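Example record used in the benchmark description.
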Amino acid sequence: MALKIKIKKCGMVRKVDGVKKSGFYGKVIANGKKSFEEIVKASTHGSTLDYREAELACKMMIDGIAENLRSGYIVDLGVIGKLYPAVSGKWEEDPKDLALGDMTPRVNYKAGDDIAAAVKGAQLSWTTEAETDENTVNDDDNTQTGGNTGGNTGGGDNGSIVDGVDEG
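Model output (structure tokens):
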């Protein structure tokens, strides 16, 4: 099954060399959403592992991942990728002006080589207005945000991009 990613042309205004200019960027329009349960069930298809056992194992692993991220560790998930503890917050000229109360903990993800290659190999196509209206997903996970270039999936924070990973 070939991956197909629909792209919408979106207008925006940004400063270029101190001058406001109108332009466009490409924004992914999701083909819907897959639940955790759907992914677990699909992953166990064709195996002797019951999906409920796989689901329990995944939930236990997630607990371990969360505990280690809260402790400040980078979590290497092998072929899946890496999770990095990070913060977002204000930019200040003087380091004395930085306050912990202005920092918000978050997590960044860098896909493993196989996952990154699968997405890079996806077929891209422009979407139509009808497809955009019926497939738009406005969810808490921000899957539809990110007009910034460089792969910032959070859209609009003041983080930097390192190796394709939004580092903060």
